[in-house]
Specification:
- By secondary structure, the chain is mainly α.
- It has a single domain, classed as Up-down Bundle (Growth Hormone, Chain: A), CATH 1.20.1250.
- Helix content is 76%, strand content 0%.
- The protein is built from 15 helices and no strands.
- The N terminus and C terminus are likely disordered.
Length: 436
């Protein structure tokens, strides 16, 4: 990767010590990138929280479903959002490595803007049905699958390598802080008027498209030999499969979140267990992001430098333990606090994994490898929602959440044994052989 000179007025520095590395925000392109990420994620999270609540409320009110039957619909919602991700992720990664990444991100944001407008219109006219919600949620998944790899691959091209760990942490701050504001704002705006939240999301997506357009063009990296697109798509999967440390890191998060994900059931807890309505749901959805934002802020100014693998394993185990406690809680404020702790633990593991992936992936493959990582994250979220909804329909929402937390702790212990490389990782130096 070509070295990018520091901005005017900032002296060049070596990668260490971390405290002397220039702030990523001293680079104008990164500031635009940060703003684009913040506004896009805030819009997406506002839409996600309302779609889930609308679907659950519609199933309970208009279709007369029981709590377990409506919970199963939430599980199906996770499935319909995952299917386009599973099918299109290799394509999205290839697109991010073969086309101008900035334009890919803008195009994906505009697709999501159209979806927000449609959801707002159907909500305003009282024409929203379960089949329509499922269809628009699937299209929302299509937009997300293309914006993820493109945005992730932009950051390494607009800051120097020495600044990248702090840039990743600050990008996580954008994501997590938007994940705090988005759900809370979505829930409150929805309570005032259901259609207004989609107008809010559409405006934010337009702002995101504009700010990312202000970043200088990020051209696709040159390649010496052009191969068949399907072969190039497979390269990202093969690279991840061959590198044992990377494979173990990604799959740890994948299986832990699939088993312990309780996000899909938050509408159930908000409406029928904690009885707080859409406003309470907004705060419940925002709570994990509060913890994640605090951890990301700390990591931006004081990145971890030692025993990164062991700390990541403990963070995943803490996430599982927090999930068990959340399932047992019947107090709204205690539940909020537990979700904050869970979000902080999750952010810790996300930071370790994201830093290792970006620092150890060749630039010409970064879009495809980011797509693989993004698929694992999306699979863990959407399939986790399907698992939670299906299990809640069978044994009840509380039991489903508790079971998931216990299973996540078990997966952490199993991965620590199957992949000793994770325990032995001491720093962010390359842990595996970099291949093309």
């Amino acid at each position: 990767m070509a070295t990018i000179p520091p901005p005017e007025g900032v002296e060049p520095v070596m990668p260490e010590p971390a405290s002397k590395v220039p702030s990523p925000l001293s680079y104008p392109d990164y500031r635009y990138f940060w703003a684009a990420r913040f506004t896009a994620v805030m819009a997406t999270m506002a839409m996600v929280v309302v779609i889930g609540y609308q679907l659950y409320d519609t199933a309970r009110t208009d279709y007369g479903m029981s709590i377990r039957e409506a919970s199963f619909q939430l599980g199906l919602l996770g499935l319909v959002q995952f299917v386009p991700l599973a099918i299109l992720t290799p394509v999205a990664g290839w697109v991010a490595d073969r086309f101008e990444r900035r334009k890919v991100a803008i195009f994906a944001n505009m697709i999501d803007l159209v979806i927000a407008v449609l959801l707002g219109w159907f909500t305003w006219t009282d024409a929203l049905t379960l089949p329509l919600l499922f269809a628009l949620a699937a299209l929302h998944g299509v937009a997300r699958v293309f914006v993820g790899p493109a945005m992730s691959a932009i950051a390494p091209n607009i800051v120097p390598p020495a600044v990248l760990p702090r840039a990743i942490a600050m990008s996580s701050i954008a994501w997590q802080s938007a994940s705090v504001v988005g759900p809370a704002a979505g829930g409150l705006i929805y309570a005032a008027h259901p259609a207004a939240v989609y107008v809010f999301a559409a405006v934010l997506l337009a702002l995101s498209a504009f700010t990312i357009s202000r970043v200088r063009p990020v051209l696709p990296p040159p390649t010496e030999v052009r191969r068949h697109p399907l072969r190039e798509m497979a390269d990202g999967l093969q690279f991840t499969w061959r590198e044992r440390f990377l494979f173990g890191t990604i799959t740890l998060d994948l299986f832990a979140v699939i088993l312990s994900g309780a996000t899909a059931l938050l509408p159930v807890f908000a409406r029928d267990i904690l009885q707080t309505g859409s406003e309470g749901l907004g705060f419940l959805r925002a709570a994990p992001a509060v913890g994640a934002a605090v951890v990301a802020l700390g990591l931006a100014f004081r990145p971890i430098e030692r025993n990164v693998g062991v700390k990541m394993l403990w963070a995943v185990a803490a996430f599982g333990a927090g999930t068990v406690a959340f399932g047992l809680s019947t107090n709204f404020f205690l539940s909020l606090g537990l979700l904050v702790l869970m979000g902080g633990a999750d952010m810790f593991s996300v930071f370790v994994r994201g830093t290792l992936i970006q620092l150890n992936t060749p630039d010409h493959m970064r879009g495809r490898v980011s797509a693989v990582s993004g698929l694992a994250i999306s699979a863990s979220n959407e399939l986790g929602e399907m698992r939670a909804g299906t299990m809640a329909a069978a044994i009840g929402p509380i039991s489903a959440v508790i079971f998931g937390g216990v299973a996540a702790i078990g997966v952490t212990a199993l991965w620590a044994w199957l992949f000793p490389e994770l325990r032995r990782a001491r720093t962010f130096e390359p842990q595996f052989r970099q291949t093309d």
